[in-house]
Write a structure and sequence with these properties.
Creatine Amidinohydrolase, 239 residues, five-stranded antiparallel sheet, binds cobalt (II) ion, globular, binds 2-amino-4-trifluoromethylsulfanyl-butyric acid
């Protein structure tokens, strides 16, 4: 899983340069595909429930699951959330990041900062002896003082041989999920706060994939695959 995670991290490393005004989300998909395949890995998204691309690219009010498209060209001031998952030797790595395209508005900057910080707050709570709900509480507690909104309809998850395994990892505290599940060394989860500026509510476009904020406010998503170890959390999708 470390190796799968490193491949995902290499793709994101390439995006730090490649995300700029004028590039299409299709070109980003091709870049990801070439890096993934050069490591003898494959996309864990392509074909998942019929998903038609290697990565997800979600611009501005789009939260997750945006489909790369030749006609979608990034413009200065946009934000783009890029989600990458691979299978490598039977295991999955999964990580998403929201990138600024050139210079962005201060409010957008703040949304990215708050969401990224909430991911790291969740990771900090990913310790043996804690429970899943400690992660959820850490993420929610980190976001809500900002006035931004934690999405409820999409969540983090266990990761392993499959992209989505138990436990479910909510980004807010609730009784009706796996919050009581204990974190033990060897458990690997994807922590993925999704945060919107104006509402937690979302809707899905007619392409049946693209999820947007209901009020069309800006949306951000940061995700790492994280292992519980005896020495604390280990982020697998980082170089
Ligand atoms: N990374 C996403 C997740 O964690 C999966 C992408 S959805 C797909 O749930 F359909 F594109 F695979
Ligand atoms: Co995920």
């Amino acid at each position: 899983m470390r190796e799968a995670g490193r491949i995902v991290a290499r793709v994101h490393q390439a995006f730090r340069e490649a995300v700029r005004p004028g590039v299409s989300t299709w070109e980003l998909d091709e870049l990801a595909s070439s890096i993934i395949h050069s490591h003898n890995a494959k996309s864990s998204f392509l074909g998942y429930r019929g998903y038609p691309a290697n990565i997800c690219t979600s611009i501005n009010e789009e939260l997750v699951h945006g489909i790369p498209d030749r006609a979608r060209v990034l413009r200065e001031g946009d934000i783009v959330s890029i989600d990458v998952g691979v299978f490598y030797r039977g295991f999955v790595g999964d990580s998403g990041w929201t990138y600024p395209v050139g210079a962005i508005e201060p409010a957008a900057e703040r949304l990215l900062q708050v969401t990224e910080e909430s991911l790291y707050a969740g990771i900090e709570a990913t310790r043996a002896g804690n429970r899943v709900l400690d992660i959820s509480a850490a993420v929610q507690g980190s976001v809500e003082p900002s006035g931004f909104h934690v999405v409820r309809e999409y969540t983090g998850h266990g990761v392993g041989r499959a992209m989505h395994e138990g436990p479910q990892v909510l980004n807010y505290v609730s009784d009706d999920s796996d919050g009581r599940v204990g974190l033990r060394p060897g458990l690997v989860i994807a922590i993925e706060p999704m945060v919107q500026m104006g509402t937690w509510r979302t809707e899905t476009l007619r392409d049946k994939w693209t999820v947007i904020s209901e009020d069309h406010s800006l949306s951000a998503h940061f995700e790492h695959t994280v292992a519980v170890t005896n020495r604390g959390p280990e982020i697998l999708t980082r170089l």
